[in-house]
Amino acid sequence: MKVSYQWLNKYLPLAQNKIKPAALAEKLARTSVDINAVYSPSDGLKKIIVGYVEECVPHPDSDHMSVCQVKISDDETIQIVCGAPNVQAGKKVIVALHGARIADNVKIKRGKIRGEESDGMLCALQEIGFSEKVAPKDYEDGIWFLPDDAKIGESVFPYLGMDDTIVDTDVTPNRGDMLSIYGNVNDLAAIYDLPNGFESHAVKENDDAKAADLISAEVADDQMAPVYKLRVIKNVQIADSPMWLQIRLWNSGIRPINNVVDITNYILLKYGQPLHSFDYDKLPSHKILVRHANEDETMTTLDGEEQTLKAQDIVVTAGDQPVALAGTMGGESTKVDDQTTNVVLESAIFDPVMVRKQARRLDLHSESSMRFERGINPETVERALDEAAYWLQKLANGQVTKGIVVGHDQQYPAHEITLSLQKVKHVLGIDIDMEQVKAIFDRLAFETTQKDEDTLVVNVPARRWDISLPADLYEEIARLYGYDNIPSTLPVMTRNWGGLTTRQKKLRASRHVLEGMGLNQAISYSLTTVDKAKQFGVTPSTTEPMKLDYPMSSDHVATRMSIISGLLNDIAYNEARKVSNVALYEQGRVFIPKGGERPEEQEHVAGAITGSLVADSWNQKARPVDFYQIKGIVEQYLDNLAVAGTITFVADQSRPEMHPGRTANILLDGEVIGFIGEVHPNVAKEYKISETYVFEINLEAVLAADVRDKHYQHISKYPEITRDIALLVDDTVTNDEVVAIIKRRGGAFLKHIHLFDVYTGVHLPKGKKSLAYTLTYQDDQGTLKEETVNQAFAKIEKHLTEELGAEIR
């Protein structure tokens, strides 16, 4: 809420006690609510004064400009060229002199406009910092006219309220009482221990007619409107509000409209009580009913939009025709305009949950709905209604009819809470006596009754609906006692050695490994759609994911059972912004339903790569990622984690989201722990991404697996001997089968096996392929002899021929 320092100072002796706005804001931040900003509307502006237009003639070389002679002091008149359509002689205006600074730090300079000298600028409100939302509509396209009593040559700031200081507070949901000047005055009076001079105005009814004879009110369900009251004011005269009232509104961020609407907004700011004004003569019936809307019932709101209502919405009806969305926005058909003569004022308390739901669903959040959602002070519902009627008498010459029409009323008695002084001392950790506690509650205007030396009964007024427990009163004592005055003590605790657990170390190392191989970490939502939650399971399943009862959007309704879908969304986001090379990984939890109340949470790691891992360079071309690159990343990842078991890759076609010919399961000692492969082209098209390769591993299986002992390997100083071997084998023979035989029969000195060529073509028999390997032999203890290598090599040739039917080429 934008709180005016001058308005506060009207009720509290702030300036008299030398409490400056910045200090006041800091005190509020330490004690009550957060502060967004402290500023003056005149900040950054200078040399902007009151001027008087003595003469205004058309510009000789323009059809829309005027040349004005503007008096800026008793003995000085300057010429200013102005393009505003409403400029005229005889008006006092806002003048930015040569060298002035206006909004957005624009500097005004002397110059010529189409050949005519211009010594400054005549300003609209928007040009000196007013936002479009608060500048009065009558002056939207023109300059602002100052009141006739404004003194020529003086600063314009006092006449526009720009010499005020605004404290912009950020009110938390529990402190709805601070969304009013009344609430701020009460709190600051308690904080600074100042006399509370808040002033209300009582209305004197001056029309013989009874309101109950003119209108009736009824509430269909007490819960939706615990309090609902109406007043009727006759013969109002619609006009602009006086400047003091317009200043109060626009300094609070509200646009002045007319005196009737402005008075309701003024009361909203002063008391935190939203009011609504109906044109009495436009009401289709004078029987007012508050009820739930009918399903798909429609009405047009004040913003000109037709709203389709739901059965849970609350409406105010006249003759069963909706004329307002209760607590949210009025209807266009009964709005107050220039022809209005009779007004119905509404003051109520509406159910906060119902108001919030309908405001959120219809996207109609307003100053009124915000206050209804956070709570209304029941003590001021009627008080605010009466003061609004008072101002309609004063500013619109209205005649207030006798009585208030009550649709429903409810008593909100003070709430009694019993406190123990010893408990207060124990919880707050301070040495405080009973008199100090009672003094704090006196400052808050909470009545107290002392039962004995340790017991105090506190009557919490209804205006502080956020207080219901002793703990709430402890907080009130602490904040007025002063948080800075509470002694600092270290917590009592045992001392243990810090550090990461073994699991935490492995999870951190896991991320480092993937980052070292060029993948960037991504963090995606754990919630997704039901269809995406079912995709890319490490263990394919038809089980339904866990669904949320109240999802925040249609894209976040179920918990994920795989990480890959989130990574594909990230790739789609990047590709949509012309980023073609993307390599991402994510490590996090997935949620696998197991039939119980809660799903099983598993730690998974997944990666997704599209484009190229290495960009084009002068000495090499970029190569699109393929199955073998991502397989190599997974192999290196598992190797770095020192997994001791046997890792194998087996072709798989069971996942419809994956390419059937380019997908493999990852097995650890024969158990599936993950998979790798290409995303199916049809699925890639759905995600709007290019060819993409992915992997996902269940880290729980990896973390539970045995690990290799950590040891170093001595680098042999003796020379290597290499042998090449080319085999002609059946197409069905895999590389793994060949390598397994070579390892098993290669002897103790075989160090490395490298596949350097695969060939299939017209020069080979049908159903055959050629595989070529380089075998590396080395002895760590001495130089190998040729005969030793030849014997081992011959043994390999023999077993390849016998076991695989290979033909040595």
Automatic annotation (TrEMBL):
Binds 2 magnesium ions per tetramer. CDD domains: PheRS_beta_core (cd00769), tRNA_bind_bactPheRS (cd02796). Gene3D superfamilies: 3.30.56.10, Bira Bifunctional Protein, Domain 2, Ferrodoxin-fold anticodon-binding domain, Nucleic acid-binding proteins, Phenylalanyl-trna Synthetase, Chain B, domain 3. Residues 716-809 form the FDX-ACB domain. It is an enzyme of class 6 (ligase). GO terms for biological process: phenylalanyl-tRNA aminoacylation. PROSITE patterns: B5, FDX_ACB, TRBD. Its cofactor is Mg(2+). Mg(2+) binds at residues 466, 472, 475-476. One of its GO terms (molecular function) is phenylalanine-tRNA ligase activity. InterPro entries: aa-tRNA-synth_II/BPL/LPL, B3/B4_tRNA-bd, DNA-bd_dom_put_sf, Fdx_antiC-bd, Fdx_antiC-bd_sf, NA-bd_OB-fold, Phe-tRNA-ligase_IIc_bsu, Phe-tRNA-ligase_IIc_bsu_bact. It catalyses: tRNA(Phe) + L-phenylalanine + ATP = L-phenylalanyl-tRNA(Phe) + AMP + diphosphate + H(+). Its EC number is 6.1.1.20. One of its GO terms (cellular component) is phenylalanine-tRNA ligase complex. Residues 42-157 form the TRNA-binding domain. SUPFAM superfamilies: Anticodon-binding domain of PheRS (SSF54991), Class II aaRS and biotin synthetases (SSF55681), Nucleic acid-binding proteins (SSF50249), PheT/TilS domain (SSF56037), Putative DNA-binding domain (SSF46955). Residues 412-488 form the B5 domain. Keywords: Aminoacyl-tRNA synthetase, ATP-binding, Cytoplasm, Ligase, Magnesium, Metal-binding, Nucleotide-binding, Protein biosynthesis, RNA-binding, tRNA-binding. It is found in: Cytoplasm. It comes from the Bacteria. Belongs to the phenylalanyl-tRNA synthetase beta subunit family. Type 1 subfamily. Tetramer of two alpha and two beta subunits. This is Phenylalanine--tRNA ligase beta subunit.
